[in-house]
Write a structure and sequence with these properties.
The chain is α+β, with helices and mostly antiparallel strands. The protein has helices spanning 9-16, 21-25, 28-37, 79-89, 99-102, 106-133, 173-179, 203-223; strands spanning 49-51, 67-71, 135-139, 142-150, 153-160, 164-170, 181-188, 194-201. The strands form 2 sheets. A 5-stranded antiparallel beta sheet has the order 1-2-3-4-5. It has a 3-stranded antiparallel beta sheet with strand order 6-7-8. Strand 3 (135-139) and strand 4 form a beta hairpin. It starts with 8 loop residues before the first helix and ends with a helix.
Length: 227
């Protein structure tokens, strides 16, 4: 699992004695992006959108590579299953109105209710973990898509910024427009040909930032500048 909101051990050592040491080692492209993008979102544990988060790192992060954007699906996408959960929790008290249930011994009635509640709790855990652990990361070098399947299986896909060939931002429907989230589709020349940032907040800002980073990569190639 990507080590989200776990501070990089080397970063603490680097920033402890000298306040300016971080700026000296920061890449020019990162400094430029930091000025252009600024700080967006919050660095809280359950944030769904944050630029330059202070305590986010991941397994394959390279030395000097900076996390520019950290994203999850917009929290509002959890509303349907939350409403369904509340509805399901109102069902067990109605069991007594069904004759087959009333014919069962009391111990069996209690067991059936317990199994039902465990089923609901299991569904809540599965949905909440899927939202929390499915994350999207944009660094100054690449895009990272972490797909959480279950506790024992996840898929991490990456593509370098220079490998992005096409970028589309899709925001459709009243729901997405009102709450300000949408989908980003990225066509790449990497091993994984297509990335999707699904239901992320501020898709227009994500698209604008990625286009800017693509332009920066092309300009650096032409001018032969070092990051």
């Amino acid at each position: 699992m990507a080590e989200v909101y776990k501070a990089n051990p080397t970063s603490h050592k680097a920033t402890k004695g000298r306040g300016k040491s971080k700026k000296k080692r920061e890449r020019k492209s990162v400094t430029h992006l930091r000025k252009e993008v600024g700080k967006m979102g919050r660095d809280s544990l359950f944030t769904s959108f944050s630029s330059f988060p202070s305590q986010v790192c991941f397994e394959t992060q390279e030395k000097g590579e900076a996390v520019v954007l950290f994203m999850r699906q917009h929290p509002v996408v959890n509303l349907p299953w939350i409403i369904m959960t509340v509805f399901l929790l109102t069902i067990p008290p109605l069991f007594e109105y069904f004759p087959p249930y009333m014919m069962l011994p009391t111990n069996y009635q209690w067991m059936m209710s317990l199994i039902f509640y465990l089923f609901v709790v299991g569904g809540v855990l599965a949905k909440s973990m899927a939202w929390f652990f499915n994350i999207y990361i944009v660094t100054d070098e690449r895009v990272v898509d972490v797909d959480f399947v279950n506790l024992f299986y996840r898929v991490i896909s990456t593509a370098k910024i220079e490998e992005i060939q096409d970028l589309s931002i899709i925001q459709s429907g009243v729901w997405e427009t009102f709450f300000g989230y949408g989908k980003g589709e990225i066509q790449t020349a990497a091993e994984v040909p297509q990335f999707e940032f699904y239901r992320v907040p501020h898709p227009d800002k994500v698209g604008s930032l990625l286009n800017q980073m693509i332009d920066m990569e092309e300009q650096e190639k032409l001018e032969g500048r070092v990051k």
